Recover the amino acids of this structure.
DNA sequence: ACCTTATCTGCATCAATTGCTAATTAGCAA
DNA sequence: TTGCTAATTAGCAATTGATGCAGATAAGGT
């Protein structure tokens, strides 16, 4: 995702308005690698701007996704997560704390059983334990 | 997933009862490679046994999953899909018709960016077009 | 400063799933 | 067979995540 300044220009160019709510979300999302949910973003936004609506958070996230500034991913946590990192990567989910980490794979694996199917995209979700959670279990 | 006959024995052994509803679901799931949702299973069940409750379908699916007889997968279609194929495999989802196909991967890809994370499982979701949908587009 | 149009908020709605409970029934034992 | 008891069912309420809707508001070009 581009910087708040660049997004401001991009939004105006697209005929969209740049509101204080959107500027705040631009800032909260920029360089955010936590893969937040709409709800967690709303919580974070509320501490800075009390009264901001969850509906507006969803709306802005949808706009950003449509502009290709972020992607939404589904890792089985019940709710959608938003990712300003739009590079080609995958995700590792900790079964202990639920945190989502970025993962990069060297090359796409070879497939079997896919006659007559043209693949346009692949997404891998790894599950396991992060370092912190492994340490916790070890000391118990 | 094992056969309806074997499941009958397994359920009894586990202190669970084998009801007509459950037997029907055993049959509908056995060798079913369509990755059905709870709702689609309920529809199929209803044609044979009118009045069977969606709640009962969910309950039985949960029981079977807890016994390891089936797995539930999430491929971004909004609802959970159930898979009596519990072998180690992955899935290809057609963006045209939504159908889910089994995929087998030769070997796990090499990772980067995962220091300090112990992976216990990996699931790959491929997206693209199935043969039928590709053909449709071509003839249009 | 003004005007048009996009946006915001609050609330209703929706879809998938789970919680709850009275009535029913499977399956074991007498 | 019959009876007993715990498991199950069906139906409905509740929950969660997300989207639809509309009147009030405000961005930003003129
Ligand atoms: Mn990511
Ligand atoms: Mn499968
Ligand atoms: Zn963790
Ligand atoms: Zn298809």
């Amino acid at each position: 995702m581009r910087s708040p300044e660049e997004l401001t220009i991009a939004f105006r160019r697209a005929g969209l308005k740049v509101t204080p709510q959107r500027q705040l979300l631009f800032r909260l999302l920029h360089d955010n690698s936590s893969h937040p949910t709409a709800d967690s973003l709303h919580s974070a936004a509320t501490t800075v701007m009390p009264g901001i609506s969850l509906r507006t958070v969803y709306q802005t996230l949808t706009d950003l996704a449509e502009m290709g500034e972020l992607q939404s991913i589904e890792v089985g946590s019940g709710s959608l997560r938003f990712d300003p990192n739009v590079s080609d990567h995958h995700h590792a989910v900790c079964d202990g704390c639920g945190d989502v980490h970025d993962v990069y794979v060297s090359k796409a694996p070879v497939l079997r059983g896919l006659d007559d199917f043209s693949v346009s995209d692949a997404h891998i979700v790894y599950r396991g334990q992060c370092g912190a959670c492994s340490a916790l279990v070890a000391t118990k």
In short: Residues 12, 17-19, 37-39, 54-55, 58, 62, 78-80 of chain B lie near DNA strand C (CB under 10 Å from a C1'). The first strand of chain B starts at residue 71 and ends at 73. The pocket of manganese (II) ion (ligand 1) is lined by residues A 35, 83, 85, 89, 91, 102 (CB under 6 Å).
